[in-house]
Amino acid sequence: MVRQTTFVAGIVLLAATFSFQVRAASLTDFPFMVHCENSGLERAYYLAKVDPNGVAVYISPDRQAGFVTVNGPAQPVGGDGSGSCAGKTLKQLKDAGQAFDLH
User: Among 47, 57, 75, 98, which is most buried by a count of CB atoms within 10 Å?
Assistant: First the structure.
């Protein structure tokens, strides 16, 4: 009986550990605004949505867009992708002073 209890407790602990690690990304995981420059033009991209797969979509007032995941690089939607945000992770954008939260 002790072995069964220990085995069940181990399975519960393992399941709790994995369920914590695969938590879906939410709006609070992403900055509210990202500042990027492309071809001498500066734009502010605002967080528009986070889809169920953890992909955040950012849109500028002039309808330019890009997306990023919690750990992946930022990518433009369309265009050549040569701007100052392209290829940077959220950490790199924050470290460069290009990502802003609402607090």
Answer: 98
